[in-house]
Amino acid sequence: xxxxxxxxxxxxxxxxxxxxxxxxxxxxxxxxxxxxxxxxxxxxxxxxxxxxxxxxxxxxxxxxxxxxxxxxxxxxxxxxxxxxxxxxxxxxxxxxxxxxxxxxxxxxxxxxxxxxxxxxxxxxxxxxxxxxxxxxxxx
Amino acid sequence: xxxxxxxxxxxxxxxxxxxxxxxxxxxxxxxxxxxxxxxxxxxxxxxxxxxxxxxxxxxxxxxxxxxxxxxxxxxxxxxxxxxxxxxxxxxxxxxxxxxxxxxxxxx
Lengths: 139, 107
Hints:
The complex is a heterodimer. Chain A is of the alpha+beta class.
């Protein structure tokens, strides 16, 4: 299942494998490379790492990330920064009778320069709320 | 991933610019003077922000007498919506590959 609006992307999938196995695929560097991208990931909070795709015109293929939360077999989240935009990717694992339900949410898209404007009266979230209205009128 | 969106993100990275743009989407056409009254910054600063918005094609302008009137071009936001929508397909594909990897892995 995929849902997306201008503020988040959610993909959910059921796997006939136990959470511990899914967790390994999400957190072992050599396994991450096999389904996502080349990387120097380590499952430690605060660890900065890069995901590397093949470069294409106008994009160097690099995604700058930082581990935000690690709760073995349950939750993994890291920031995802590329092309001047930063978002937060969160994986949530839930055991089921037949395996694991995995939920991926990528949320909070905003310019990564936002930190420079702390205390600003006009936040990105408010803007994105307005953006949905504006983009909705385009169709 | 559309690199063209880069300019757009830069233009929108400033909260004063976002506020100016949003006011224009709400109010239709406004002069630099009208925008300055509510922006909380000086007129030269407002003009500078409008130039950045113009570069990203987020606003258009026309001169009328001594005043310049600005209008929002919300269609310029489309790459932003596309870019985020793009990630839906991206993750769907990656989740399928994750499923294939799990099949190959030892229990």
